[in-house]
Design goal:
By secondary structure, the protein is α+β, with helices and mostly antiparallel strands. It contains seven helices and seven strands, in the order H-E-E-E-H-H-H-H-H-H-E-E-E-E. Strands 1, 3, 4, 5 and 6 form a five-stranded antiparallel sheet that branches. It has a two-stranded parallel sheet with strand order 2-7. The termini are far apart. Bound molecules: 2-acetamido-2-deoxy-beta-D-glucopyranose (NAG) (4 copies).
Length: 316
C-alpha cells in the first residue's frame, strides 16, 4: 500500500514536472516596442520619409533598405554530415540592412561578434579597418538551445543551409555581420537584454522575411524550373518576380568574373522597404539598387540539384 502510494506520488510528481516543463515559457526574445505606437511609423515605410526617426528600435535606421537573401546551391559538400538542401525551396542566406542608397556597413558591434569565420576579416573589408577576430565560443546552435528554441533550430537545419561549412557557422556569420548593423536589433531595444536574445530574434525575423518571397514558387509560377537541359534569360527571372511581387530583385550568378560570363544562377536578394520593424512589420518589395551579376546577354543556367543532396522531409 505504502509502496503504491509512493509510486503514485512519483507518478504524480512526474506528471506535474512534465506539465511544468511544457508550461514553462521559454525566455522571450522580443524587443520592447512599447514606445513605437506614438512614433507615427505605422504610416511610413523605411527609406521613404526624410523626417528624422527618433526611436530607431521602431524602424530600421539608417539601414532601412531591407534585403531578404537566398541561395541556390546544387550540393552542400557536407551531405555526409547530414547537411541537405530542402526540395522545392531555395535556402535562406540572411536578412541585411542596407542604407537607402544601397551602401552598407558590416560587423557594427564587435561585442556581439560570434562569427567563427569572419568575412571580410576587418569591419570595412580593408586592411585599415578594425580586425574582426574569429569567434571560438558558444555556437549558434548552443544559443538556440539555451533559449529553448528547438523549433527554430529544426527549421534552420531544414532551410538555412550552408555550403562547405556547418550551417550554424552561416547563421552566426549573418547575425554578427548584418544584425549588429540593424537598429531594431540593438541590445537597448530589449528590456533586460539577455546575451544573444537579439540573435534568436534576428534568425526568426530572417526566416519570416524570406518566407514572404518563396523564390522557387515565384519562378515556378512562370514555368521556370531548375533544369540541366534548358537555360533561361535574366529577364525571365526578373519578370517572374515583377509579376508576383511587383519589383526586380538582384540575381547573383557564379562563373568567371569577366562581365557577361557569369551564367550559373546562385543567389537572389529581394529588396524591400518595411512598415514598422523587420521583425513584425510589412515588407514592400522595391527594385534592386544593385545591378544583377548575371549576364543579361547569354543564357543563364538554373541547375537541378544533385538528387542525393536534397531531401523533401521538411514542410513549409
Ligand atoms: C514624414 O513623416 C512626418 C511625420 O513623421 C509627416 O508629417 C510627413 O508628412 C511625412 N512626409 C512624407 C513625405 O511622407
Ligand atoms: C585578413 O586577411 C588577409 C588575406 O588573407 C590577411 O593578409 C590579413 O592579415 C588579414 N587581416 C586580419 C586583421 O586578420
Ligand atoms: C546588359 O548589361 C549591360 C551592362 O550592365 C548594359 O549596358 C546593357 O544595356 C544591358 N542590356 C540589356 C539588353 O539589358
Ligand atoms: C545538374 O547540374 C549541376 C551542375 O553541374 C550538378 O551539380 C547537378 O548534380 C546536376 N543535377 C542533375 C539532376 O543532374
Amino acid at each position: 500500500m505504502l509502496g503504491s502510494i509512493a509510486a503514485l506520488t512519483v507518478l504524480a510528481s512526474t506528471l506535474v514536472n512534465a506539465l511544468t516543463i511544457r508550461q514553462t515559457p521559454v525566455p522571450f526574445t522580443y524587443p520592447s516596442l512599447k514606445a513605437c505606437p506614438s512614433t507615427n511609423l505605422s504610416v511610413q515605410c523605411s527609406c521613404e520619409n526624410k523626417t528624422t526617426i527618433e526611436n530607431t528600435c521602431c524602424s530600421p535606421t539608417p539601414g532601412g533598405l531591407v534585403l531578404a537573401t537566398q541561395f541556390w546551391n546544387t550540393y552542400t559538400n557536407r551531405e555526409s554530415e547530414g547537411q541537405f538542401l530542402p526540395a522545392r525551396h531555395w535556402g535562406i542566406h540572411g536578412l541585411w540592412p542596407d542604407n537607402c542608397d544601397g551602401s552598407y556597413e558590416s560587423y557594427c558591434d564587435l561585442s556581439r561578434q560570434i562569427d567563427p569565420e569572419p568575412s571580410p576579416n576587418t569591419t570595412t573589408g580593408k586592411p585599415d579597418g578594425t580586425p574582426v577576430p574569429a569567434w571560438k565560443g558558444e555556437s549558434a546552435t548552443e544559443i538556440l538551445k539555451k533559449f529553448g528554441r528547438y523549433d527554430l533550430l529544426n527549421y534552420m537545419n531544414g532551410y538555412w543551409i550552408a555550403r562547405d561549412q556547418p550551417n550554424d557557422y552561416l547563421w552566426a556569420h549573418e547575425y554578427a555581420k548584418h544584425a549588429t548593423c540593424f537598429s531594431t536589433f540593438d541590445t537597448n531595444c530589449y528590456d533586460n537584454h539577455q546575451p544573444f536574445e537579439d540573435a534568436v530574434d534576428y534568425w526568426q525575423a530572417a526566416i519570416r522575411a524570406n518566407k514572404m518571397f518563396p523564390t522557387y514558387d515565384i519562378l515556378a509560377s512562370q514555368g521556370i524550373l531548375p533544369s540541366n537541359s534548358t537555360s533561361y534569360k535574366l529577364v525571365e527571372f526578373e519578370n517572374a518576380f515583377v509579376s508576383q511581387v511587383g519589383a526586380k530583385p538582384f540575381f547573383g550568378c557564379s562563373g568567371p568574373e569577366k562581365s557577361g560570363e557569369r551564367k550559373v544562377l546562385s543567389e537572389v536578394w529581394v529588396f524591400a522597404h518595411v512598415l514598422g520593424t523587420p521583425q513584425f512589420g510589412q515588407y514592400k518589395a522595391v527594385d534592386s539598387t544593385t545591378p544583377s551579376s548575371c549576364s543579361n546577354e547569354t543564357e543563364i543556367w538554373y541547375y537541378e540539384r544533385t538528387p542525393s543532396s536534397e531531401i523533401s522531409k521538411f514542410m513549409s
